[in-house]
Specification:
With 71 residues, this protein is mostly beta strands. Helices cover 11% and strands 44% of the residues. Strands 2-1-4 form a three-stranded antiparallel β-sheet, with no helix packed on it.
């Protein structure tokens, strides 16, 4: 799974990570698209005081449901 990480302000790195396993009461999603928003830009420029680095970016998603718990 391709992940974009902001190591420090102004530095992005792409990292391939293993697919997560679904927990008993969780839904597994496949990300199809990720949008870049103002918060992501603030993370990249270092103007977001409420988080730590490194930071996985992207929270505006279009997803496909892959697995769900029974019921």
């Amino acid at each position: 799974m391709l992940t974009v990480i902001c190591e420090t302000p102004g530095t992005l790195r792409a990292e391939d990570r293993p697919m997560p396993l679904r927990g008993a009461d969780e839904v597994l999603l496949r990300v199809k698209r990720v949008g870049v928003c103002g918060t992501d830009l603030h993370i990249f420029t270092g103007n977001q005081p409420y988080l730590n680095y490194p930071r996985v970016m992207g929270h505006e998603l279009a997803v496909e449901v892959v697995e769900t718990p029974e019921g």
